[in-house]
Specification:
Number of helices: 20
Shape: globular
Number of strands: 2
CATH topology: Amino acid/polyamine transporter I
Strand content: under 5%
Structural class: mainly alpha
Number of domains: 1
Distance between the termini: 57 Å
Largest sheet: 2 strands, antiparallel
Radius of gyration: 20 Å
Helix content: over 70%
Length: 443
Amino acid sequence: MSQIADLIDVTATWLVVRVLIALLFGTGLFLTVRLGFVQIRRFGEALGAFFGGRSSTGAGALTPFQAFMTALGTTIGTGNIAGVTAGIVSGGPGMLFWIWAYGFVATAIKFAEAVLGVTYREASGTDQVRSGPMYYLRDGLKSPALAMAFAVVAGIAALTTTPFTQTNSIALVMNTQVGIPTWISGVVVAVLTWLVIIGGIKPIGRAFEKLAPAKVGIYLVGSLIVIITFASRLPDVFAMVFREAFTTQSAMGFGVFTAIRYGLARGLYANEAAYGTAAVAYGTAQSDRPAQQGLNAVMETFVVSFGTCTLTALTVMLSGVIDWGVPVGERVTSTAAVALAFNAAMPFGGYLVAFCVFLFGYGTLIGWAYYGEKFLEYWLGRGVVTPYRWIYCLLIPLGAISKPTLVWAWGDLMNALQVFPNLVGVLALSGVAAKAVYDHRRR
């Protein structure tokens, strides 16, 4: 099994370091310029939409606020905790800088995806909504073949990554902190997931309307307690982050390329820009203003890249729970490291982490269940929906007992493959997103 994980990791590394670095940063920089630095110039409006953009102005399944919370709640998963920590352990402190770097340009990618998702969706009243990269690839780019290629890859990715990565992290922290056997956690999470997703997007939207703000607020408070407790170490930690982000001969054994590889992979996994999922989530909004949903996407990416990911990285580095002097394979990692960091700052901190990991992972599980449903529905037809929901939930217990190394390596690989067809459409149709920015500014 370890050999398989190593092979998958090598393949994912080749795709991320050799291909995706140039493609993602290049796309992000191009869109940032073409959209007039929308993430800076329109950040105030994005912030206003974050706090007050709840009015419905068009056909769709969810209110704009529910659509935003669905996107945010799905994006903020265990990748923001376990994935970031695993990336620091394997890629070094400099990884955090590259999460920030990608997060900045990723806001422009997410803006474009959300705009295209609303522009090219198929919406009829509040019941039938079909959105996602498949539709702007088919109807905007006029490429049914590329639309189908995306649906196939993304559908397989949704079914074979999320039920494993999210559940694995939940089961790990429940086992280390509470002593619950991993298989029991898997079964419980599977049942809870089924209870929500069996009803479709409306129950999912209602769940996220309450779940997303709660889980962000709880994790923010806990992380700030850790950061304040070890605040005297902040200058040293930030110095280490910037030093390790650029050095080619690191005393810690990492170097710039390792930092970029893990920073980009974990940043991509954490904020989901370029996956195409933003087009699915924001395409469900009851809104006829694509730019409004684009601004929500900007805020979503900002919260993830500069908020939750940064909080996780700082807690594990400030608390000193990672021993840089031992081999990578022997270092504490994933949710266990964050639990130790919280325990070092407060009584029962590990239990708080366990609760946050459950909320994070559970939210991503139910959100990605809907994404995968839309991908596979485009590929195989409406009849696949009910069997898919059952299969998705039945896979969750398997994720709880899987090896973390294999789980995350496979997730990196599949998500990297998902990016390519989507970015073809985003780049080719970037003029549509640019027009939305211009039209929005005229109002």
